[in-house]
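[INFO] parsing input record for Amidase
[DEBUG] input buffer:
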Amino acid sequence: MKRVHAFGDDCLTDLDGVGIAAAIAAGEFSALEATKAALARIDVVEP
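[DEBUG] output buffer:
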């Protein structure tokens, strides 16, 4: 099985779901930015 990852230079860095929620609550980035970054990562793994 080939392993792939989609970590990149985006607002999500290496945060898990709890970390992302905390960063959004703290105003570090918006929910829209997090969603766009997550969708971009999906495109890397499954174009």
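[INFO] Residues 15 and 23 are 9 Å apart (CA to CA).
[INFO] shutting down worker
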